[in-house]
Structures are given as structure tokens and as C-alpha cells.
Write a structure and sequence with these properties.
328 residues; alpha/beta; five-stranded parallel β-sheet; 15% strand
């Protein structure tokens, strides 16, 4: 079965060399920035496409690959894939739901702790020879413990649940909102269900763990941020498209938010004119960035790739793949 992979070969060699060797010449790689014409020319008979979660899979690409049967997002997100066009053509679109949940949850905890303990500021102070000055400042101003926080999780899917599991170990109070109430998580983890408006007023840290949909795109705007507690924090390990960058920048500049931890910022790649990269010096120290790496730990990537290969083998056996997201 011919597989067209839009992206680099290196991670496949590093993480899953056995499946790559088994595929042999039937897997073809093109650069992420390849045009549709270049991709189609490389593997005109491709039945499967592996594609990075931030790269587009358009109707034009599907039409250029007449034998295409399945598009596999290498990650959890699939909003860059034209799922409706794929459904019209009978093409499966799959993702790797839950495969990197633990890794993303750990990244969220890292950002929370990094904000509360001001790790970047502290590191810079020590390197600049101001260790005692920084320590004195902490004595004077104080720093909060995660165990004393209420964290509000927006989206109790696999990642939200994995985050709740980790936060309960700290002794943190966890409230959540989701499209569907998760009573099993409430029983097992002691998390509390609430509507979004109540979550925003209760949470010291709001963690975004929901998918990007037409309804959630830009949901974190002026009204959302104004409803958050003064002095609270926003953490986003989901997708940058959930957030209105200008509104977040204003909330940081005004001091309404104490800080933001962002693993994802839209658009990606992040451009130099993004308002979150052009904050005043006072506001800039309240932001902790990571380069959208929460879900790509070695263990997570290995699990994601394993699932993609298993779907290829299922297709070869005439079986329906798992984690189909477009209803085919």
C-alpha cells in the first residue's frame, strides 16, 4: 500500500524503524512545504497520506490522488484537514486521540509551575548575579503553590482527564467544563463539574484542553478574559486558534491576568508581529512560551506512529481504521 508522508523521514527512522523498513519503497516522503503538484508527482498512486497536524490536506490534494483511501493526522488535531471533502470522496480521516494525552498534561503542569514560581525570571536573575536580590523579592512578594490553586479545565477529553489525574497528586482543586459531563472522572478523581461562567470566576488557573471547532475558535476573547478572576493565569496546550491574541495581550498589559503559559500560539509558525511577542517589558515577563512541543515527547510520538501504522494494516486487511473523525 503506497503511503505519501508530508514531512520529514527522520522521526520515522528514529521512532519506528521496523515499520519503516517493512514499508520499504511503498512509503514516500515530501517536504512539509511541498506543493500539491509536487506531492502528487512523488506518489500519484498513494492510498494513504500521513500528515503533520498543522499542515493542510485540501480537496485539491485529494483530487490529485485518485486512489486515496485514508488521511492520517500525525497528531490529535485535524482541523487543517478538509474533513467534509474527504467524506464526500469516501476517504477516512483519522487522528491519534489520546495518544499524547499524558505528555500534553505534563507540559500543562510545567507551564503552571513555571508561571507560579517565575522560573524564567529566577534563572535570568541568577545568571546576572542577582540571586540574593531575587530571593529577597520572593520573600517580599511571595509565590503561590499549585496545591493551593483551583484549576479550571476547559475540555475533559483524554488530555483534560490526564491533566486532572496529575493535578490531584498535587492536592489541587480541579473544576471542569465540557460538552458532556464526565461523572466517572468526578467519582474517580474528585473533580467538580461546573458551567463555563462559574469556572472562570472560580479558577486561579484556566487550562484550555478543548478542540478547535467553529464554536470554539476565538472563544478566549475580551468577554472570556474579563470573566476570569483578577490575578489568574491562562494556560493553553490545546491550539492557538482558541485565543484572540490581541485580547490576551490587553489582559496581560492591564494586569488583569497575572500570566499566561502558552505551548500553542496562532498562527503557526509564530510571526514577529504577533501582539503576544510585542508586549511591554512589564507584561512580557508574565508570559511563558514553549514551542508547541507538549505532545511530541519521544514516548508520545512513538505511540502516535504506532497507531497510524496499525490503521494502515487494518486498511490492508479490509477493516475500518480506528479514530475516524469524519464519519466515513
Amino acid at each position: 500500500m503506497k503511503i505519501l508522508t508530508i514531512g520529514g523521514r527522520d522521526k520515522y527512522e528514529r521512532l519506528d524503524p521496523e515499520d519503516l523498513e517493512r514499508a520499504g519503497d511503498s512509503i514516500v516522503f515530501v517536504p512539509r512545504d511541498a506543493t500539491v503538484a509536487e506531492a502528487a508527482a512523488a506518489a500519484p498512486d498513494a492510498e494513504v497520506v500521513f500528515i503533520d497536524a498543522i499542515s493542510p490536506a485540501t480537496a485539491e490534494l485529494m483530487d490529485a490522488l485518485p486512489r486515496l483511501r485514508m488521511i492520517c493526522s500525525e497528531g490529535v488535531a485535524y482541523d487543517k484537514i478538509d474533513c467534509a471533502a474527504a467524506a464526500e470522496r469516501g476517504i477516512y480521516v483519522t487522528n491519534n486521540a489520546g495518544g499524547n494525552a499524558g505528555a500534553v498534561a505534563e507540559q500543562a503542569v510545567l507551564l503552571m509551575l513555571g508561571l507560579l514560581r517565575r522560573v524564567v525570571w529566577g534563572d535570568a536573575a541568577v545568571r546576572a548575579g542577582r540571586q540574593i536580590e531575587a530571593k529577597t523579592s520572593v520573600f517580599a512578594q511571595g509565590e503561590d503553590d499549585l496545591m493551593d490553586m483551583t484549576v479550571g479545565i476547559v475540555g475533559m477529553g483524554a488530555i483534560g482527564r490526564a491533566l486532572a489525574e496529575r493535578l490531584t497528586v498535587f492536592g489541587t482543586r480541579v473544576v471542569y467544563t465540557s460538552r458532556h459531563r464526565k461523572e466517572d472522572a468526578e467519582r474517580e478523581l474528585g473533580v467538580e463539574w461546573t458551567e463555563l461562567p462559574d469556572l472562570l470566576t472560580a479558577a486561579d488557573i484556566v487550562s484550555l484542553n478543548c478542540a478547535v471547532t467553529p464554536e470554539t475558535t476565538g472563544m478566549v476573547g475580551e468577554a472570556f478574559l474579563a470573566a476570569m478572576k483578577k490575578g489568574s493565569y491562562l494556560v493553553n496546550t490545546a491550539r492557538g486558534e482558541l485565543v484572540d491574541n490581541e485580547a490576551l495581550a490587553q489582559a496581560l498589559e492591564s494586569g488583569h491576568l497575572a500570566g499566561a503559559g502558552l505551548d500553542t500560539v496562532a498562527p503557526e509558525p509564530v510571526t514577529s508581529d504577533n501582539p503576544l511577542l510585542n508586549l511591554s517589558e512589564t507584561a512580557a515577563v508574565r508570559v511563558l512560551f514553549s514551542p508547541h512541543v507538549g505532545g511530541i515527547s519521544t514516548g508520545a510520538l512513538r505511540r502516535l506512529q504506532r497507531h497510524m501504522w496499525e490503521n494502515v494494516y487494518a486498511l490492508e486487511r479490509g477493516e475500518r481504521p480506528t479514530c475516524v473523525v469524519n464519519g466515513v
